[in-house]
Amino acid sequence: MLDLAHLHYPYLPADWFLRDRYETVQHIAKIDVPLLVVHGEADVVIPVAMGRAVFDAAPGPKTFLKFGGGHLDHDARGSFDEIIGWIERGGAMSAAGAREAGIRDTGTSAARR
């Protein structure tokens, strides 16, 4: 959250204002469940690089789903269908399932074409 505040409000001393920092990257390594990170390629609120940093810091199994929309475009871009599919598959996607869904498998992760 602090990185995001610095990005959007570089002229403010965000370090002083933010009480809750939400330091996801520092804590994500502790999870022990399948992870789905969903990010719009056109997101102007949170840069894709920040979503990717969370994904990269997490242990597996994990999936990174990029879609062509912005921060709140899930309905318009169909990412809800892929999220629901991921949940229905139990949160982990085999390489064959990824190919069927049109998702490029990258080891323990997957990235939308």
Number of helices: 7
Protein structure class:
alpha+beta
Strand order of the largest sheet: 1-2
| Major sheet details | 2 strands, parallel
Instruction: Please tally the β strands and state the result.
Output: 4
- Helix amount: 25-40%
Please give the domain count: 1
Radius of gyration: 15 Å
Which residues form runs of ≥5 with pLDDT under 50?
102-113
Mean pLDDT: 75
Distance between the termini: 28 Å
- Could you give the order of the helices and strands? HHHEHEHHHEE
Q: Proportion of β residues?
A: 15-25%
Shape: flat
Question: What is the secondary structure topology, with strand pairs?
Answer:
Layout: H1 2-8, H2 14-17, H3 24-27, E1 35-40, H4 48-57, E2 62-67, H5 74-77, H6 79-88, H7 95-100, E3 103-106, E4 109-112
Parallel strand pairs: 1-2
Antiparallel strand pairs: 3-4
Verbal overview:
With 113 residues, this protein is α+β, with helices and mostly antiparallel strands. The radius of gyration is 15 Å and the shape is flat. It has one domain (32-112). It has helices at residues 2-8, 14-17, 24-27, 48-57, 74-77, 79-88, 95-100; strands at residues 35-40, 62-67, 103-106, 109-112. The chain has a two-stranded parallel ribbon. Strand 3 and strand 4 (109-112) form a beta hairpin. It is built from 7 helices and 4 strands; from the N terminus they run H-H-H-E-H-E-H-H-H-E-E. Helix content is 40%, strand content 18%. The two termini are 28 Å apart.
